[in-house]
Amino acid sequence: MNAIVLFGDVIRSRRDATGSTTWLRTLASELEDAYPGESRLADFEFTQGDEIQGLLRPDADPLAAILRAWLHPERRRMRWVVVAGEVDPGTGPATQRTGPAFLRARERLAEATSRRDGLLMSTDDPSTDRFLDDLAPILAELLADLTPTQRTIGRLLLVEGLRRSEAAERLAKARATVSVAAERAHLRSIGRLAGALRILFEAGTGAAASRPPIPEDVP
């Protein structure tokens, strides 16, 4: 069956294994709430102090997980990969599942580590993946540059979908203060880039799924 596999790896987790585990537990709980039962195919689970894994339906929005992780007030630096493809049938959390998409995600995570990219995305459609390979790391770079205050405002605007005036009211700040912070953080551009990546990923996933299977060689 087709699905979306997410891997998120905590960077330099061994420097604070306990803190990394606490963070991944917090993140797993938040992502469980963000993706109700019908939008995920397995529970989010993490390896001890290191990596979180998720398995979503093909029509789910994987960028929601990326934004929630990067804009969380307790966030830790992570590398993410998002891979659409075939997974083997099964039950249990994502860490207990397997299939071609999981193997590809593992390869892409190693590639992201080698390239020092914060986000890589793959749909198995070559033309789409060339664009994703250039654009997805840029989103991670923009998110990594945000200050704690900018992340707080970004979470309200990009994750919770509040208007700037509503965010200002929530934070008990002047709307102008929130607007200036949002502009300096390029939050509008971050939102537009995330939206473009969603469209590209969905289009590439659809193109890959509709491609005729390669016939087996006839002996």
Short key terms for the protein model shown above:
219 residues, alpha+beta, Alpha-Beta Plaits, five-stranded mixed sheet
Walk me through this protein's architecture.
With 219 residues, this protein is an alpha+beta fold. It has one domain (2-146, 185-210): Nucleotide cyclase, GGDEF domain (Alpha-Beta Plaits, 2-Layer Sandwich), CATH 3.30.70. Helices cover 53% and strands 16% of the residues. It is built from eight helices and five strands. The protein has helices at 17-34, 63-70, 100-115, 126-144, 148-159, 164-171, 175-184, 187-210, and strands at residues 2-10, 40-46, 51-56, 78-86, 119-122. Strands 2-3-1-4-5 form a five-stranded mixed sheet, sandwiched between helices. Strand 2 and strand 3 (51-56) form a beta hairpin. Helix 4 (126-144) runs antiparallel to helix 8. It is globular, with a radius of gyration of 18 Å. The protein starts with a strand and ends in a 9-residue tail after the last helix. The model has no long low-confidence stretch (mean pLDDT 93).
